[in-house]
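pasting for the record
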Amino acid sequence: MSRLPMLQLWMATVVLSTGVAFVPGVAADSVQTFTGSVSIPAVYAAGDAAACGGAPLAPVASYEGLIVAANLLKGNYQGPNYLGIPSVVFTVPPLAAVGLSECEASEQNLKFRVQKDMTSTWYSSRRVAETYSGYKVLVEEGTDRILGAHILGSETGEVINLFALAIRSGMRATDLKHIIFAYPTSGSNMTRML
C-alpha cells in the first residue's frame, strides 16, 4: 500500500504525471531528468514516489535515492540510467529478465537474432534435478549488442546479473562467448546461450 497520502502532497500542490495536483490514491509526481519535481523544483522524488520510468524494484529505488542525494548536494548533474536492470520472479523454478523483450525490440525496429533453447538436458539443470529450464537471448545484428535475456531455471537470479552487466557495459555477445567461466556453474552456460 502506498504511503504517499501521508505526505499530504496536495498541500504543496505537487503536480502529478496526470497534470493535476496530488490527490490521495492517485499516481506519483512526475519528475524531470534529475529526479526533481516538474511542478516544484525544490522537491525531489525516488522510488514509489517518483514516476521517472524505473522498474518498481527496491534496488532501483535505492539507485534513484543515490541520484537524488547527489543532485541535492552537487546540483542537478546526474540522471538515472535504466539500461540493463534485471528482475527475477522467485518461483520454482525462478524466472528472470533483463533488457528488451522480443516484442519491444521489434517495436523499436531493431534487427536482431534470437537464441533460445530448453536447457533441462544441460548438466547445470540435471545436477539439481531441474526438469523445466530454458533461455531466450536477443542479440542485435551488426553491433552484436545483447538487447535482452530471459531465463528460466535454477540460479537464474545470478546468471541474469551477468547479462545485466553485459547489457549495461555494452559488451558484445562475441566478447562473452570467449570468457572462460568456472565449471560447472550456471554462469558458464552463458557461452552456449549466445
